[in-house]
What does this fold into?
Amino acid sequence: MPNVTAIALIPLLPLAGFLLLGLFGRKYLKNSSGLIGTVLLLASTILALYTAYEYFFVYGNVGGVYQKFVPLQLTWLEFSPGVSIDMGLIIDPISVMMLVVVTFISLMVHIYSLGYLKGEERFPTYFSYLGLFTFSMLGLVLASNIFQIYIFWELVGVSSFLLIGYYYDKPSAVAACKKAFIVTRFADLGFLIGILILSFSGGTLDFSTLIERLTSPESNAFKTAAASTFLGASALTWGAALVFIGGAGKSAMFPLHIWLPDAMEGPTPVSALIHAATMVVAGVYLVARLFPIFSITVPGVLEIIGWVGAISAIIAAIIACTQTDIKRVLAYSTMSQIGYMMFALGVSNYGGEAGLGYTASMFHLFTHAMFKALLFLGAGAVIHYVHSNDMKDMGGLRKLLPITHITFLIACLAIAGVPPFAGFFSKEEILLAAFQNNMAIYYIALITSGITAFYMFRLYFNIFWNKPHHAHGENKSEGGFVMMLPLILLAISAAAAGFIPFGEFVSSDGRLLESHFHLSFSIAPVALAVVGIFTALWLYKKENDKPAKFASSMGGAYKAAYNKFYIDEVYLFITKKVLFNLIGRPAAWFDKNVVDGLMNLIGTITEYISEGIKKIQSGRVQQYAIYFLGGVIFLAALFIYLLK
Amino acid sequence: MNEFFTLMKSELVITAIIFLLLFIKIGKGMKNDSLLSLVQALLLINFIVGFFFNKEGNLFGDMFYTSSLIVFQKNILSLGVYLISLLCSDWLKKTEHLPEFFILMLSALLGMFLMISSGNLLIFYLSLELATIPVAAMANFDLHKKRSSEGAMKMILSSAFSSGILLFGISLIYGITGTLSFAAIPGQLDGSTLQILGFVFLVAAFAFKLSIVPFHLWTADVYEGSPVAVTAFLSVISKGSIAFIFITALYKVFAPMQDVWYMMLVIFAIITMVIGNLFAIRQQNIKRFLAFSSIAQVGFILVGMSSGSNIGITAVVYFILIYTFSNLAAFGVAAVIAEQTGKENIDDYKGLYKTNPFLCWILALALFSLAGIPPTAGFFGKLFLITAGATKASFTFIIIAALNMIISLYYYLRVIRAAFMDKNESPIGKIKLGIAVKLGLIICAAGILLVGLFSWIYDYINSLS
Amino acid sequence: MNLLFLIGLPLLTAVAVLLSRNKQQVKWIALAGSIAQLGLAFVLFFIYQQERNSGNAAQMLFEQNYPLFASLNINFHFGVDGISIAMILLTAFVVVAGVLVSWKIEKMTKEFYFLLLLLGMGAYGFFISLDLFILFFFLEISVIPKYLLIGIWGSGKKEYSANKLALMLMGGSALILVGMLGLYFAGGRSFDILTLSKATISAGYQSLLFPLLFVGFGVFTALFPLHTWVPDGHSSAPTAGSMFLAGISMKLGGYGCLRVATYLLPEGAKEFADIIIILSAIAILYGAFATMMQKDLKYINAYSSVSHVGFSLLGIGMLTQTAITGALMQMVSHGLMTALFFAVIGMIYDRTHTRMVGDMGGLMKKLPFISTIFFIVGLCSLGLPGLSGFVAEMTIFMGSWQNTDAFHRIATIAAAMSIVVTAVYILRAIGNTVMGPIKNENYLTLKDAAWNEKLAAILLVAGILAIGIVPGWLNDLLRPAAEEIMNRIAGK
Amino acid sequence: MEPGLYHILFLSTALFFIGVYGFLTRRNLITMLMSIELILNSVNLNFIAFNKYLWPNQMDGLFFSLFIIAIAAAEAAVAIAIIINLYRSHNSIDVENAEDLKY
It folds into this structure.
């Protein structure tokens, strides 16, 4: 049986770190803060690994099926009998897997940050934010209740907001964090309404009950939900679709991805943690969590998911080829890889062999976390060295940054899907799943993997080869042990993670799913990857004008891609022009002039009248007498004629 | 014989004081200060005496009639007179004809007493004139001020005119019913046209004295023209007395015509409140301002009166008690300021708080009480008036009444704003308050704050009516 | 326990303040008094819980009934249920905070604190009275303090705002008064809420009285389109004044809308529910959008108050138990939040001497504490989990969704949209003031919060967190009362 | 023929309105006062007539008219005094010159 205290401690330790450093860090723990945070996280990492071991090898598997445990569930807020927000811990394959990923990556980032942000003014604040983020992410992962996941969802959002805006005096950073928060918030609106619909039709907020009620065709909850339709789609479909919008927002799926590239304004380790490995895959995790419901909705929300994922994957890949800011390149590649995971879910089905996509998606999530974190941290090391994000300031660094160079190369090979690195296996399964279900998506994926290889190596060559580096005077080392250790560890896992028989642990229905390889199948993608790599080699190995020519030959297409297909501009138009000028300004004006004006008008009218009637008081006794008589006559007439 | 003394005791006391003053006048006379304090003492005695050996009964064949309620009303009036003598002592000290002033004021008071307890149209008419003519003379007491004499002229002429109308009405009623006694008239009434005509003429006179729109036009001019003491007397004492007798007239004498006068009261109430408020909004002179505000207050009194039941009587009497305190407090402040600085405009009050916080708080209390805002007693007074008016449950009427409270609040706030908030480089200087004035103001403030919370007062009045 | 303490203690404090000699004395007496009130409120809270746990299921606890105007059947009738307790706690918190933040008041300190405490007393009295007349008395009693506080210690076009506020509120009270009298005569000459709640009033008569009472109280709680006193009033008032206005006074209105209008006139409520929903939905969105355009921090919060209070009215209009509970939670939450917001704005203003968002920037560097509080309250206002706003709003949404028809659903979704707009304007405010580069060199010399400001802020934050992190207690407090109201509406 | 009630009532009413008319139109304060006397006298006529023709067994009307005459005298006395004082300050007894107090 799961060990509640151990599991509960996993998120609580980072929380403790957050409180400790947040309250006292600034004054008392200025120097020790980094260490405290790291140690606490180390502890929870160990706990997570322990939990994972226990679950997968001791108690988790009952009769060949990985069970779903809810060892702890406290009522937090009861809306009405049966419908309540519970704070619980859920233990099942994906949550345990995520526990490991989150804690491990977070630990790496903590260690790395010790070096990366050394001598920072707000060192404690930074680590407290990291703690907050890790806590909320773990809470999200462990959520046993759909509203609980929403709560931590929001918390994750705000901690990412804080971390992106860590350099709060940089206007671009402020803009970026606002953008990130608002865009995801907009998506969360969908999520919220989705929750309302699902919980109302399910009559509960608890995941297990909800899924059970909404997926068993004979339960009346399912019947009513399926029966009550709006705009041709059943309540169930609407709920699932809206929930997915939330997920798409967090996972930067097209067209809600615009915040992700800007989010790179944050410190690089943060990007590695939040915007590569953990938070951005929350959307995938959410869909996986509610997968049974998604898988039975008609018309299939899964199809939407699949297409959204595929489109995001390819668009992001194309844009990535044109960017020169290395972090932005990585950001788009992240988006593209998450696209993979999404459509992998989209092409999957619930249960058995058909559930391959699900497993593949989770697998890719796992490996991607490793190598993408590695890439970011490597990029961080580079940036730390050259003090710039831009490719043109780099080149020929392989001598100066040997370790970074090697690890980065491994990561590139991994993401490019070159065997035997991790990316190869996971991507392989995804392609297989797509191949089995949806050819169109399969081809898109195939092309994308080629492009992926190309832009990753474009990046690699531009950083480490190309023009020789003009070392500007100082000749410092590449960041020291604390920064190199994470790189190495991650490199190892990025290289080795692929050999984990993932299907045995994680599958849509908890049953074993052995993944079998057909070499014939994997020829195409690998070949494409190699082609991509060699194109990159040919274009960028030496400094030359081929890329420029190439770009100009593409003409408009290149320009469009370079400008991210002008999606930002569209958003800008909607917000600035429509929201502010067409709604906000009129509303403010209306309030100031019409509503307020009415109130003042009443006053003015009163005074006007009182000015108008002042003549009555003429100051002449005789006039007064006339009014007197008038009154008398009026009364007499009234009572004698009218009221008789 | 003995009964004669107990029943008419207040009248007798007043008469005694009047004669005493006469002798003093005829005799070698007294210094103003000592005379003033003497009179204040006497008035206090008169007020206290009012509480003892009260009996219910009537004299001279129903011509004079008194009850504990009437006694209570008389006490309110004598309290009011006492307060005036305190609050205006600055001005009184300066007048060279102090005894005459008090003789006039007290004979007017005597007239009101008789009027309240009159049981016969003849006595009513006589006492009404007794209550009016001296006041006209008082209004002219600032002999050298043009405005004073103008105000007095307007008052005497218009009141003479109104009494002419009144008499015509009385003569008609006499012609129809053949009797003048309040007790006998109701039996004779059958609502014939001529009766209504007579009734309307009669009511017109009441309306004139109560300054109900459109019979109110003399009010503001007279108030502005006459000295503050007289204005206070007019706005509180004579209004109160007329209101009391008006109730008796409507509820007792013209009871058979209730549906007629209910209608009339509603109309009166509405236009009086509205016109009074609208005029008050744009007044600059504080006395004139208070004149119109008191007109509006009369409108509220009418709302209460329209109920036509005991609750109405109680509400009106209760309100007038509170109104005495509130209005006299306001007038008291106006009086000291006018007397010591000669300033009577609201704009002159700007920045008053800097120099005279005490006066300002009193003023604020008084005005909030007039506006009917808790914790002041005015809140209760107004609320009960409206409650009484609501017994007939005609919503529009009540809503109009309630909405008028907004306008009135608006102009009361104008004064408070001037006193508390507005900047002024040359505010009114520090004002020295004599013992008497201070005492008067404190009594008023106490009344404003406590009468509302001492709910037994209301219940007591209710038990009387 | 004797509820009269709740009125007596503030009164005593106020009198003591009047009698005290110098400014220091005034402040300390006021502080001590208000803290004592807070203590009293907590004592009341715990005793109440004990009573309930010991199975006392009476609708009102600690009832007291003294005849006041016997002949009119007006009584000093006091008693508390969960709603009152919650509101009393809120009031106590805000009063202490208000006293603390106005520590620096130099002009007419004595009068200031006197009026402040009087305002608090009015609120306490209002929340415990079960007799409409007394209720109305305490509602009106706050007019003088409000007017003078804004007019004397205010800023900007204060006289105008004070006038507007006083008059509009007076208008509200006028309507309430008429409705009250209508109830009085319809319910057999009684102002007693409990008696009236048993009385049977014809549906027609109810739908005549309900608008009067609801709109009347609505004016107090910024019911669209009668909210226009809110922006001017709040922005002109002194810091503590705004805190009291938005934190307490607006809640009087909401409480009245629920306890008097909806509870006593269920038929009327049913008839007008849709209109209420429409108005409040408009208020929510419209207020939010109007906020986006504001440049003055106080105006931002004032308009956002319009939007937030709209939620509680929406909850009332939805007429489901959950929604009403949410509405009440929103009142408490908004009270604490907006009070804190105004307090922070005041702190910033005292230092930068501007409230214009455009002129600030980078306050985080020099004012870390104040900025952090600003962050927290901003996040609370945009409904971040773990802070009170989230709990209240979600409860309202869940409750509203229980109405299955399209109209209610659409209204709910419309209201939900405001969470995005809220995020926009809050982040805009935060981004331009707390974050960003420092625009003005003078800001480099600013001093962070003093002890009194810190204390006030921490107090309110504690309240916000207490609701946000463990909402259960508040829920349990309010739910039974809401149930009672729903039973009456359902005609049980 | 001998006059009946209605003749007298007619006369008195006419007198009343003449008085009113005079009060409303005359500029001279004294004249206005006199027109008020006219009104009062018409009332006296009323009382006496009613008393004689309708209620002969009581004397109320007669007494009332006596009192009216007395009061009228007192009223006139005060009024004249005031008018004289007005003349002192305004140097005229024309009502139109005494219109400072208005609005």
